[in-house]
Amino acid sequence: xxxxxxxxxxxxxxxxxxxxxxxxxxxxxxxxxxxxxxxxxxxxxxxxxxxxxxxxxxxxxxxxxxxxxxxxxxxxxxxxxxxxxxxxxxxxxxxxxxxxxxxxxxxxxxxxxxxxxxxxxxxxxxxxxxxxxxxxxxxxxxxxxxxxxxxxxxxxxxxxxxxxxxxxxxxxxxxxxxxxxxxxxxxxxxxxxxxxxxxxxxxxxxxxxxxxxxxxxxxxxxxxxxxxxxxxxxxxxxxxxxxxxxxxxxxxxxxxxxxxxxxxxxxxxxxxxxxxxxxxxxxxxxxxxxxxxxxxxxxxxxxxxxxxxxxxxxxxxxxxxxxxxxxxxxxxxxxxxxxxxxxxxxxxxxxxxxxxxxxxxxxxxxxxxxxxxxxxxxxxxxxxxxxxxxxxxxxxxxxxxxxxxxxxxxxxxxxxxxxxxxxxxxxxxxxxxxxxxxxxxxxxxxxxxxxxxxxxxxxxxxxxxxxxxxxxxxxxxxxxxxxxxxxxxxxxxxxxxxxxxxxxxxxxxxxxxxxxxxxxxxxxxxxxxxxxxxxxxxxxxxxxxxxxxxxxxxxxxxxxxxxxxxxxxxxxxxxxxxxxxxxxxxxxxxxxxxxxxxxxxxxxxxxxxxxxxxxxxxxxxxxxxxxxxxxxxxxxxxxxxxxxxxxxxxxxxxxxxxxxxxxxxxxxxxxxxxxxxxxxxxxxxxxxxxxxxxxxxxxxxxxxxxxxxxxxxxxxxxxxxxxxxxxxxxxxxxxxxxxxxxxxxxxxxxxxxxxxxxxxxxxxxxxxxxxxxxxxxxxxxxxxxxxxxxxxxxxxxxxxxxxxxxxxxxxxxxxxxxxxxxxxxxxxxxxxxxxxxxxxxxxxxxxxxxxxxxxxxxxxxxxxxxxxxxxxxxxxxxxxxxxxxxxxxxxxxxxxxxxxxxxxxxxxxxxxxxxxxxxxxxxxxxxxxxxxxxxxxxxxxxxxxxxxxxxxxxxxxxxxxxxxxxxxxxxxxxxxxxxxxxxxxxxxxxxxxxxxxxxxxxxxxxxxxxxxxxxxxxxxxxxxxxxxxxxxxxxxxxxxxxxxxxxxxxx
Length: 1051
Known about the structure:
Strand content: under 5%
Mean pLDDT: 80
Radius of gyration: 56 Å
Distance between the termini: 132 Å
Largest sheet: 2 strands, antiparallel
Number of strands: 2
Helix content: over 70%
Strand order of the largest sheet: 1-2
Structural class: mainly alpha
């Protein structure tokens, strides 16, 4: 084969390796989020996440060794076009020969040679297509074209490979024992791989290695199989194939196979073996010649392979964890101090990215120790700082940050050593400043999110550090401002104000000047005494109007206000700050200073809210000084200004001037002269009947007459308020007068008049007082037996008071009907009250009881029984219910249990022995149930019900006794001795149960005395006892020696 035709056989190894380069990928750390702190529309500047140094670190999970073709070199470098022409000519010539000698023994050799040319032609086309695609893709990425190219179709390439496959298959079929069969098998494996028939290609390679183990193509086949498995990431099967190539040290692929084997070991997790194998690759690749050759021109670039292996060494070494021995190991492999330092740096970054903080810090500190003055030393310390920051180890981070700032700052020995390179010094300063600034802003944002004192104090400490180290930085003022914001959030208002003021005074043209001036005022204001504190100060003064000196905090606030007013006399907050300063002077009794500044406010903007407040305070100062003349003069002076006179404030001022006269009466009231005040208010109302204050004057007159004890005058004035027409506030005074008048009538015992006023007030006013007035009116109408009016008023009250009102109204109406014995109507209202789910448990219990009781009185016994059962349930549902409703629960339970007495009375014995026995047994069972039920009644511990329960038990014994007394004679015992015995037995049982009944009645009577339950239940038990045992009573009406009834009573 001609040497020229072999020059592109380099491509025959392209398919053996992946197309992913082993060049280390540049990994970037995730960018930090922005921090925004809003206070007075101030946003914290965004903090930028600091990117880690871009190093040649590899992503072990994705990267594969480079394609085998990277390490192929040509013996010559002919022109591609010439080479393509020669290949085409060779194909034509060989094809012609194949046709000419298609039956000759020489056809096999021709087929092999033609197959090689087809393979070379496929490689040429493939290179051309890929080169064209790469160029277009580059243009697309550079923006030279907007159309992204599509990957080229390789159908023509596959067609040439298929032609070659057909030729090699013919050769094996026709010449199965030829010595070149191994060459054909190898070519079949290769070409099938190229067209994607991987399984078929694998089969040919395996056949070659098994049948022809000594063939020169065996190593090529093992390597191809290794590449096949490697591409499938089947490291376990790829490794043996590479190792078989390695066994043949003279093989041209020995070094490359060794290199690929090291990667297999690495991907299988055998890191130590992988590293040893990679070291062997490096050492073998350092031979004298630059490449191995086999039968001609194809060789491997061992120097490039050695360089690639050396680049992978750090990747492999990282997994061993031998970072403390890295320096010695790297020196041994590189024989270069410079290269060793570079590799240690690379390893340090790799450990940093993988999270091995201990190793990363150790290596960077080692690099710093090797050359503390090196330009990169500052960056190494910065990386240590970043490592601790990224893991949240605050204590170590701050320590290393201090080391970075102290030992590598602009005044450090490191800076002195590198002063010849100002760019390095500046870059480090900028990096330190931005790192600490970003970290501080991040802490500030975290503090805003966490809202904990610790997080805020941590951010404050970082601000202090920044302000210490970077006084000349461009962002110094900005950081100081936000330090003030943080201190403000920490409620350290004084220190916050100091920061604001410093920022404001340092740079009047700065970005945060106005905000600093404004926030300074807000922060200083926090130390101002509040109204309660000022009131306490004034109360301690002998002369309540003597000036109070400004305290240091108030003076600072005054200074802050004056700074703002100096630089922003027309600012948005100018009037508000002036007004606040004026009120401070006012609260400290420094009236002249207050008047001076407040008058300016009125003059500057008479229509503003602050101007109205200022005018009110001005007039109040005159009032406090009891200078009503100046009060009126000042008011008239305001109205002399046409702008003020035409404004809404001017209209109010006119009213205020009229109020000055009103204040005379008010002054009497405040001084406690209520009668004089009442008379003065009455006189004002008479003199100014059309005044908007006339209603208030009449009302105040009534209030003061009431306070002075002149009740009839108070009534007279309240009636005038009610009679005087008015709207709005005046109408409200009319309603308030009705309410006050109703209370006076009620206290005087004039219930009808009180009810009328309460109802009028409730129906015409709004609010809780009006609703309560309606309720009061309804109660009074009810007390006056004006049921129709009471019912109507209760309905209005219920509609206004919603659920609570409906409940109270329903209850009140039910009680009203109960007192009138209108049972059905009462039942309806009680049931409505229950359905409204009132929280008043006691009333709920009573409502259930009354319904049950009224159904009993209406002789609706079925419904009564249902409601008695509900009474028992609601009482026993909670401990509180049992406490509040024991009386009703006991009575209801007793009534329900008395049915067993009725059932005992209803038992009929019959005339036969069996029927009599059956009847007596039934009575026995009923009595057991009754006694059990009555025991439950007794547990309520309600006296009358306890007596009734004991009486009921005694009655059950009396019923049985009377049964034995009147027992029928069974047919079986009609005559003779049997009859006599039966009668004697009946008499004995009668006496026994009579005695038990007597004992029960005695116990009930005695219990009544003990519990002082002197009611009908006790009387009933006494009557029964007297009926059964008249001798048991003494003249005093007491019971003689009475024993207790046994717990269990049996027949």
